[in-house]
UniProtKB/TrEMBL annotation:
Protein known as: tRNA-dihydrouridine synthase
Signal peptide as annotated in the record: none
Gene Ontology MF, one: tRNA binding
General function of this protein: Catalyzes the synthesis of 5,6-dihydrouridine (D), a modified base found in the D-loop of most tRNAs, via the reduction of the C5-C6 double bond in target uridines.
Gene source species: Candidatus Sulfomarinibacter kjeldsenii
Cofactor field: FMN
């Protein structure tokens, strides 16, 4: 099977067909800019919640900001009430803030599902339908996509119905994280489900998400499932050059050598400086500590270095900490196998009392907390 070199989401050509998946606290403008430079075809902002956006809360509005040079401007929204989702979309579109909108229906976080939000919403197909319909109507010509999981657990798989709802309501594409909410990020993503979804949807693209750690994973996913493109989350943490590898793979080019420790250190300094320019030094350096762990993991003697990096408060401290590394040390041979981001482990998904009494109930739940991922 010949892999695609691009895919369209409405009027937007995504080339290569590789999406930076939204991750709270990570996919802000500085990180998106790095991934764009390395070769991501579409890079989605960290998620914002519909209601505080409608209410004009300053922190939420800052999360919805884009760089002046950023195109296309892609934003993910989380919402459980079609009224607030519609109003949020109208505001974003009316102010000319976005070129693409994604809706999150995959969050497995306990505090959200126990109120009926996040990954629980697709189990209420009429509620899912009303939220998606409100977003698509408010977006007008701006393409809307949705991201979801296979279902709540093995006994409640609803990804095919979710995909059909998205297609019927006018979405421009879907992304399936091929795990259940009960799986969290444990074990292996079940790619055959992506293939099933691709077979079920005939008019919109399907993006596969889950366990893309190297470029070969993405090519294998496309060939095994027939999906139109891939969405990458944890695999690029501390490795934004993964998008260069992905672009080369989809375009049929030879893979380039991974960076040395010195090149990684230079990228860390650049990334941190961009965060400082965007957020200010205090917030930027606190936020960058987690990136330090991801960037340095797997290199020799990096544990002691990380101890120092986890205490940095000012930008010059980062430069000083990196001054004594072995700049010529090659990237660890199996460094891509070091898992980053969310830890493994499964859960029993907690849902509101009486959640299963009426699957057709379209009443919005009270679950508007700011949540992460999916």
């Amino acid at each position: 099977m010949t892999v695609p070199q691009s895919v369209r989401i409405g009027p937007i050509e995504v080339s290569p067909p590789v999406v930076l998946a939204p991750m709270a606290g990570v996919t802000n403008y500085p990180f998106r800019a790095l991934c764009r430079r390395f070769g991501a075809g579409l890079y989605i902002s960290e998620m914002i919640t519909a209601r505080p956006l409608v209410e004009g809360r300053e922190k939420t509005l800052k999360l919805a900001d884009f760089g002046s040079d950023e195109r296309p401007r892609s934003l993910q929204i989380y919402g459980v009430d079609p009224q607030y989702v519609g109003e949020a979309v109208r505001r974003l579109v009316g102010e000319g803030r976005v070129d693409h909108l994604d809706l999150n229906f995959g969050c497995p976080v306990r505090k959200v599902t126990r109120k009926g939000g996040g990954a629980a919403i697709p189990a209420k197909p009429r509620l899912l339908e009303t939220i998606v319909r409100a977003a698509v109507a408010a977006a007008a010509k701006i393409p809307v996509t949705i991201k979801f999981r296979m279902g709540i657990d093995e006994d409640h798989l609803n990804f095919l119905e979710s995909g059909r709802i998205a297609e019927d309501q006018g979405c421009a594409g879907v992304t399936l994280h091929a795990r259940t909410a009960a799986q969290l990020y444990d074990g292996h993503a079940r790619w055959p489900a992506i293939g099933e979804l691709k077979q079920a949807l005939t008019s919109i693209p399907v993006f596969g998400n889950g366990d893309i750690w190297v470029a070969d994973d993405a090519i294998r996913m496309v060939r095994e499932t027939g999906c139109d493109g891939v969405a990458v989350g944890r695999g690029c943490l501390g490795r934004p050059w993964l998008f260069r590898d992905l672009a080369d793979a989809f375009m049929g080019r030879e893979q380039q050598a991974p960076p040395t420790f010195g090149e990684v250190a230079d990228l860390m300094v650049e990334h941190a400086q961009m965060l400082v320019d965007w957020f200010g030094e205090r917030q930027a350096m606190l936020s960058f500590r987690k990136h330090c762990g991801w960037y340095t993991r797997g290199f020799r003697s990096s544990a002691r270095l990380r101890e120092r990096l986890m205490r940095i408060q000012h930008f010059p401290e980062l430069q000083e900490a990196l001054a004594d590394i072995d700049r010529g040390e090659p990237f660890p041979e199996h460094g891509h196998l070091v898992r980053r981001g969310k830890r493994s482990g499964t859960q029993k998904v907690v849902l509101p009392k009486g959640f299963w009494d009426d699957p057709d109930d379209a009443t919005p739940p009270d679950a508007e907390e700011m949540v992460s991922g999916g």
